[in-house]
Amino acid sequence: MIVRLETLKDFFEVETLIREAFWNVYQPGCDEHLVAHKLRNDASFVPSLDYVVEEAGAIIGSIFYAEGKLIDDKGNDIPGLLFGPVAVSPAYQHQGIGQHLIEFSMQKATELGYPFILITGNPAYYCKFGFTPASQYGIHLEGIDRNDEAPFFMIKILDETKIIPLGIFHHPSCYVVTKEELDLFEKQFPYKEKKVLPGQLR
Q1: Crossing angle of the two packed helices 11-22 and 32-39, in degrees rounded to 10
Q2: Rounded to whole angstroms, how far apart are CA atoms 154 and 151?
Q3: Bond preceding residue 85 cis, omega within 30 of 0
Q4: Which residues are CB-neighbours of 134 under 8 A, at least 6 positions away?
Q5: Which stretches within the chain are classed as H helix?
Q6: What pairing do the DSSP bridges indicate for beta strands 2-5 and 116-120?
Q7: What is the Cα–Cα distance from 83 to 22, expressed in whole angstroms?
Q8: pLDDT tier, 187 (very low <50, low <70, confident <90, very high otherwise)
Q9: Residue 115 contacts residue 102 (beta carbons within 8 Å)
Q10: Which string of b and e fits 2-38 if b means at least 16 CB within 10 Å?
Q11: pLDDT at site 198
């Protein structure tokens, strides 16, 4: 198993992997593969943290990082790191590959000097990586009331020596996908049936 940076020739294979990993998981079909496609061309993209996992010549995992905007209470714009989508091929899930990829890339982010990472996700899963509710640090997600603890919005401190400012975090706009964009993008992939399943969020 090899962890390496993504290259141009990997793009479609990675998007196909992400599509397979997320299909019908959080909604009928998925849009995470389009988010990855849009992110690569966005100013927020961090290519030095764009890693894939390769096994026997095939890509079985990937992770993307971006810089969002943390607007502090004085109106200053501080770059805030986030990751996602994170994907592992269905045939290789529950084998620790995703965990290894997250830990590996977070170490690289630390070496690059990033002081913290903000994400939205399952607290029960991400707590094992050291993520805690961002509201404990006075950081809140755009569109969420400051009185709402929003435990799904979490922070991982990479450098305890740097001051973490209070403020509102804004995701890059490329994480928003329209139905029209998705329908057009889907035309390059083989047909897959969209299903409404228990546990989906949308």
Answers
A1: 150
A2: 7
A3: yes
A4: 118, 140, 141, 150, 153, 154, 155, 169
A5: 11-22, 32-39, 97-111, 123-126, 179-186
A6: unpaired
A7: 16
A8: very high
A9: no
A10: ebeebeeebeeebbbbbbbbbbeeebebbbbbbbbbb
A11: 93
Residue type, 121: G
CA–CA gap between residue 179 and residue 31 (Å, rounded):
9
CB atoms within 10 A of CB 144: 16
Q: What is the chain's length? A: 202
Place of tokens 């045939």: 91
46-75 per-position pLDDT tens digit: 999 999 999 999 999 999 999 999 998 889
Q: Are 178 and 185 in contact (CB under 8 A)?
A: no
Complete domains list, the chain, with CATH:
2-186 (3.40.630.30)
Q: Taking 80 as the threshold, does the pLDDT of residue 29 lie above it?
A: yes
Examine the pLDDT at 202 and tell me if it is beyond 80. Answer: no
Task: Please report the pLDDT score of residue 73 as a whole number.
Answer: 84
The residue to which tokens 């294979």 are assigned: 13
User: What are the angstrom distances between the C-alpha of 140 and each of 71, 72, 135, 144, 167?
Assistant: 10, 10, 6, 7, 6
